[in-house]
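Researcher: Please generate the 3D structure of the following complex. Treat every line as part of one assembly.
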Amino acid sequence: MIRRRDLVVGGGALMLGGCDRVLEVPAAKRLLFSGENFHRGLHRAITDRSALAREYAAEDLSPVFRVNGNNNPGTPEYQALAANGFVDWRLQVGGLVDRPLALSLAQLRSMPLREQITRHDCVEGWSAIGRWTGPMLGTILHAASVRRSANYVVFRCADRYPNGRNYYESIDMVDAWHPQTIVALGLNGRLLDIGHGAPARLRVERQLGYKHAKYLMGIDAVASLDGIGLGRGGFWEDHYDYDWYAGI
Ligand SMILES: Nc1nc2c(c(=O)[nH]1)N[C@H]1C(S)=C(S)[C@@H](COP(=O)(O)O)O[C@H]1N2
Ligand SMILES: [Mo]
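Model: Done. Output below.
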């Protein structure tokens, strides 16, 4: 469900106005693995990459949403941006686009925003349900006039790991245009905190946690993943043999 939400800034926190509307799980998804529909459901699960991830109700929200992986990029550049409430931060959108963009937080917040309550699944064996808010990646790609030659979108992050490598991730255009793939600015009605990836992080709801790049600095549309990092499409993929496609 896509709708425009007003984000009200108060006391440094981003709060969502209006009622807490419960999102409906489409009946087709509920039936996916039930009884006689099992085989059809399995077939759909394997072939239908555009299907929606399950969305939950407000009462399903996890009381605590764990912070995992890096919890603060900690670089002087990032510290300076954070100290100033990220007003000087820009999301660079480039690569195979006709109109490269440098989007401020205010510009991102003025786009149509999507809100979704979804479950995050980490390979380390924990899950959490949270309410994420932000513009669809598709809206941003459209604003930048992404070219047809783009096959992947690469996400560059502010944080490094002890091996000196920056975190990065990538997805294909099926996930890039998926309606639940958003550049999240808020979690549970507040602006993202630093632990969860301030000021913006990817949500790609049909995939596992490590695909959801935090601390976004840039988004690049590319034809191939060759020559980016070690060429396997992400930090964990390059260094720890994780699968590039981590569908759930
Ligand atoms: N930039 C960046 N993004 C990242 C990570 C990270 O270390 N750095 N960790 C990933 C992993 S493994 C998970 S499970 C989630 C954790 O998100 P959370 O801290 O909001 O729970 O972020 C993912 N995105
Ligand atoms: Mo994870």
